[in-house]
Design goal:
The complex is a heterodimer of chains A (about 120) and B (about 120).
Chain A: E1 5-7, E2 10-13, E3 19-24, E4 31-37, E5 43-50, E6 53-56, E7 65-68, E8 75-79, E9 88-95, E10 106-107, E11 111-115
Parallel strand pairs in A: 2-11
Antiparallel strand pairs in A: 1-3, 3-8, 4-5, 4-9, 5-6, 7-8, 9-10, 9-11
Chain B: E1 3-6, E2 10-14, E3 19-21, E4 23-26, E5 33-38, E6 44-50, E7 56-58, E8 64-68, E9 73-78, E10 87-94, E11 103-105, E12 109-114
Parallel strand pairs in B: 2-12
Antiparallel strand pairs in B: 1-4, 3-9, 5-6, 5-10, 7-8, 8-9, 10-11, 10-12
Classes of the chains: A mainly beta (about 120), B mainly beta (about 120).
């Protein structure tokens, strides 16, 4: 059973461009979480999705950021008109059960976004 | 609201000596607590988790942690450090006021292991 897959692993964008980050959860997992890790900091929750539904986006900036988890295919975190402050590592995690607090989240290797 | 405080940003030990990484939590609910490890430029790996069963939790690679409700602590220990243990360690609490399961991370502790 392959782990959580994220691509690309490294992404470089110029200010004003769009960044699209992809996450394929572990097989059988239908719950996906996105976290952001700024330099020298811990991870911060951004958004929680189930298939075709955004359940909790309380940690996601209101502008320029969006996330989706379609019925088919990977979850996508999209950042429009990137700015230097968006430079960070973005981690995706998946879990098998209904988002309960005792469910283990399995993390992908992350996408490191650099905005020039 | 839940929160996690890792009391040391950096810990340095010699190979073969014990490891202690300290974590205190704040929670209005019976918490679920985790320790994750992150090696440089890698993803996060779950070391162990506490979910209201046994208060002494054993994890992978010889690590264990003890949940102490009276002290609101969940410190991570290992009897004998190995060079491969050098990494960033995160104490994590699962948000309990809803059923979303989102995780709240501490700031992290960098473990250095000297030969």
């Amino acid at each position: 059973n392959a782990g959580v897959m994220q691509n690309p692993r490294h992404l470089v964008r110029r200010r004003g461009q769009e960044a699209r980050l992809r996450c394929s959860p572990m097989k059988g997992h239908s719950h996906v979480y996105w976290y952001r890790q700024l330099p020298e900091e811990g991870l911060k929750f951004m958004v929680y999705l189930q298939k075709e539904n955004i359940i909790d986006e309380s940690g996601m900036p209101k502008e320029r950021f969006s996330a989706e988890f379609p019925k088919e295919g990977p979850s996508i975190l999209r950042i429009q008109q990137v700015v230097r402050g968006d430079s960070a590592a973005y981690f995706c995690a998946s879990s098998p059960l209904a988002g309960g607090r005792e469910d283990t989240q399995y993390f992908g290797p992350g996408t490191r976004l650099t905005v020039l | 609201a839940q929160s996690v405080t890792q009391l040391d940003s950096h810990v340095s030990v010699s190979e073969g000596t014990p490891v202690l990484l300290r974590c205190n939590y704040s929670s209005s609910y019976s918490p679920s607590l985790f320790w994750y490890v992150q090696h440089p430029n890698k993803g996060l790996q779950l070391l162990l988790k506490y979910t209201s069963a046994a208060t002494l939790v054993k994890g992978i690679n010889g690590f264990e942690a003890e949940f102490k409700k009276s002290e609101t602590s969940f410190h991570l220990t290992k009897p004998s450090a190995h060079m491969s243990d050098a990494a960033e360690y995160f104490c994590v609490v699962s948000e309990g006021s809803s059923n979303t399961g989102k995780l709240i991370f501490g700031q992290g502790t960098t473990l250095q292991v000297k030969p």
